[in-house]
Fold this protein.
Amino acid sequence: MRRQAGGAKPHPLAFPFPVRNASDLSPPASPVMFDIGFSEMLVIAVVALIVIGPERLPKVARTLGHLFGRMQRYVNDVKADISREMELEELRKLQTTIQDAAQSFEKSVNKEVSTAESEFQKLAEEANPVADLAATPPAATAEPASAPQAAIPVTQPEAVPGELTPAEASAQLKLDLSTAPTLPADKPA
């Protein structure tokens, strides 16, 4: 705390900074369009009363009030239109960002699905090599043909759901025979 001249202690409730007038203590006033005080308004009213006269003054005041009200409504409409346009622009930006995010998500999901499908295809090919051998056509023989022969199309039997193809059935039979438990031979009594 500051000491006053002469070494006396200041009052405990004294301000730590100098106060010149009461307006320094009040919060700053909100911005006003016109800085017109009561005294200025009183002067304007007296001049209007003298210039316009007491008979026409109420009519002029009413007309000015209507004009002032229209002006305020117009200004409020313009402000509302501007704020609506700003909100609309923000919504458009939000829509484009959401669409971009959705498209990138869709691309990543499609990429992952195609990767998973290719992995499943590879696993299926590795797990079932017999079906791949049966599906590949036999290699052409190296015998020279003396006369051109018509190509005979080789047709594969159609796979019926729930049934094994002949190649799969023979592979299954081989597996069953090799893994079947052996019975002890009958001993002569």
